[in-house]
Structures are given as structure tokens and as C-alpha cells.
Design brief:
27% helix, 9 helices, Rossmann fold, single chain, alpha/beta, four-stranded parallel β-sheet, disordered C terminus, eight-stranded mixed β-sheet
Length: 342
């Protein structure tokens, strides 16, 4: 049995999902009377709600399955994962309580500062429930291949988190650069949140598409541009080249297994703060992330062009992370590794 401790009141509770509304910070503690189970059947879900969280959990499931386990991953987003499969991994509609891969969110963020990744953190948490050897998350073995369109750029400019949202004016400038370069530009997202971005100059706006059509669109795109959001995760899952603009988070942590994704971030010292005060975060950042907004559209466009060329010429790039300055881009290769605590 697992317990959660309210770090504001120090009161200990038996684990209950109803105690986890947004903003209720908790730590998780193992019951020492119940050691991890020894079984070949791993059943789990992730209490994190996003599409991107489901993609990260899928990578964790694949890594565990390759250790000889039968893995059943329960998620509220099975349709978003319908284009991929992996031996000994079943994807199910979320139902009753199972092992939760999303334990200790605060610890998860801090692991990002140390070079960890979310999929490998999920595996670390599953080892609280099951006897699983050291292993790393990996991509699904089977991915649906969609026919590629020529010079089709998809922009996913929305995020439910304002702190992760690049300014609409930046997206407008990027779209103009893409159109000048001969791209057909398609903007996708939720219609209920479209007002801030519906002035982006695009050849087509596709709001609230069925999931199957979104997968086909992203899978066939030349490149996708987006915030730290679910649609970038889907691009990575489908091996579509993508550029993600980043502020509080880092590519290596959030998109570790998305090898077709490159990240661009500012060279400000607070970049990749993970909402930690000792890294420069304060209350003003909850409204606007200066690090994110300082990224220039020209740098994003140039990174995308070089990424598409690299992908078309040499195949998967391994996922680069770029640091943006006011006038250009400098970057370094990313080395993917498992967390040392796994």
C-alpha cells in the first residue's frame, strides 16, 4: 500500500486519487510492510492527465516489456496511441486503480535538473510496486508510417499552460517565414482556445479534428512546430520532425525518447528552471516566462530547416537541443541516458 503526505499539513493519508486535485502538492511514501511484487504481469497507469504524459508512459512500458514482462498500460488516451504497438505491451482504457507511474511530481521535476527523463522516472516509480531490473524507456517497435506530404508545416501553438505558450505574435512571424519558404502551413488545436492564435497567417485552420485525422496529419507532415505540449509528443511518437520551443523545461527531460524532436531554448540563466526558486523562478513567471518569450522566430525557423535537411539526408538526428540567442542559434548534441537512480 502507498501513502501520500500533504507537505503543507504533514498529514499522512492512504493513497487515494481524489486527494490529488491540481495544486495539491504531495509526497509519496512506501508502506514497508509491502515490498515490490515479484510477477511477470505489470499493470499500471499514470495519474498525469496529458496526452504527452501518456506518450511518456508508453515509452516506459516498452522499456519494461523488453525485460521479459507482460505490460498492461491503462490510460485515458488509448486512441492517441493507436498508431503504435510493441511486443508484450497492451494499451487499455483507464479503469480501476493500478500502480501509478506518476508518483512524487516534485521529485520528478528535480530529477530533470539532474539530467533525468520523465519516461525513466516512470520506470523508477513502477519499481516501487514490482520487482523490475534496471532498464531504460524506449520507443515502440511498430509505428504506423503515413505517406509524407511535400513542404507541409503543422503549427500546434496552443497549450493549457500559459507559462509554456510562446507569444501568438511569434507564431505569426514563424508562419510568415514558413510561407515565404514555400510551405503549406496548417494550424491545429482546440477550437475553444483558438482566439489568441486564430490570426496566425495559415493556409488552413483545423480545430477539434478527430484523433485519427490528427495522427494522419502529423504523421504526413514535413515538420511540426509547437510548445511543450501533447502534439509535439505525438510528432515524436510518429517520428515526424518537430521543433519545440521551451522555457521552464528541457528537451532531454520531457522528450527523451522523441528522437525526431529538437528543442530550442533561451540562453538566459533561468532556462529550464522546472519552477524551482533556486533556479530563478518566482511568482511573475507564472504569468509569463521571459526565457520562452525571448526565443526569436528566425532562430526557430532556421533550426527547423536544418532539422528537416538532416532528417531527410541522414535519418534520425538523435534529437538535438539548441540554445537560442538574440541573433542566432548555438547547440550541442544530446546524450540520452537512464536516470542514475533507476
Amino acid at each position: 500500500m502507498l501513502y501520500i503526505r500533504n507537505i503543507r499539513t504533514s498529514k499522512l493519508h492512504v493513497y487515494d486519487r481524489s486527494l490529488l486535485p491540481f495544486g495539491y502538492y504531495v509526497e509519496y511514501e512506501d508502506d514497508p510492510r509491502e515490498p515490490p511484487k515479484k510477477t511477470k504481469d505489470i499493470v499500471f497507469y499514470s495519474s498525469a492527465l496529458g496526452v504527452g504524459d501518456a506518450v511518456c508512459a508508453m515509452y516506459a512500458a516498452c522499456g519494461v516489456a523488453d525485460q521479459g514482462f507482460n505490460v498492461s498500460f491503462h490510460t485515458r488516451h488509448p486512441d492517441w496511441l493507436s498508431a503504435v504497438s510493441h511486443p508484450n505491451v497492451s494499451i487499455c482504457e483507464e479503469s480501476d486503480f493500478f500502480a501509478d507511474a506518476n508518483l512524487d511530481y516534485i521529485g520528478q521535476l528535480k530529477s530533470g535538473l539532474l539530467g533525468g527523463s520523465r519516461p525513466n522516472w516512470y520506470i523508477k516509480n513502477l519499481r516501487r510496486y514490482y520487482e523490475i531490473p534496471d532498464c531504460v524507456a524506449k520507443r515502440p517497435e511498430h509505428v504506423t508510417k503515413y505517406p509524407k506530404a511535400e513542404k507541409l508545416a503543422v503549427i500546434a501553438p496552443l497549450s493549457i499552460w500559459s507559462v509554456r505558450s510562446w507569444n501568438p505574435d511569434r507564431w505569426t512571424d514563424l508562419s510568415n517565414l514558413l510561407k515565404d519558404a514555400g510551405y503549406v502551413v496548417v494550424v491545429i488545436g482546440s477550437g475553444k482556445n483558438r482566439e489568441p492564435v486564430e490570426k496566425i497567417p495559415a493556409d488552413k485552420y483545423l480545430w477539434d479534428l478527430p484523433i485519427k485525422e490528427v495522427l494522419e496529419l502529423i504523421g504526413s507532415a514535413t515538420i511540426l512546430y509547437g510548445n511543450d505540449s501533447g502534439m509535439v509528443h505525438i510528432a515524436g511518437l510518429l517520428d515526424t520532425p518537430a521543433v519545440v520551443v521551451l522555457g521552464p523545461t528541457a528537451k532531454e527531460f520531457v522528450f527523451d525518447c522523441g528522437e525526431s524532436i529538437v528543442g530550442i531554448s533561451s540562453d538566459m540563466p533561468c532556462t529550464g528552471c522546472y519552477w524551482q526558486r533556486d533556479r530563478g523562478w518566482d511568482e511573475r513567471c507564472a504569468k509569463i516566462c521571459e526565457s520562452l518569450q525571448s526565443i526569436q522566430p528566425e532562430a526557430v525557423f532556421q533550426l527547423g530547416e536544418s532539422h528537416v535537411h538532416e532528417k531527410q539526408t541522414h535519418g534520425p538526428s538523435g534529437g538535438l537541443r539548441q540554445k537560442a540567442t538574440g541573433t542566432g542559434v548555438r547547440g550541442s548534441s544530446r546524450r540520452r541516458k537512464a536516470e542514475e537512480t533507476n
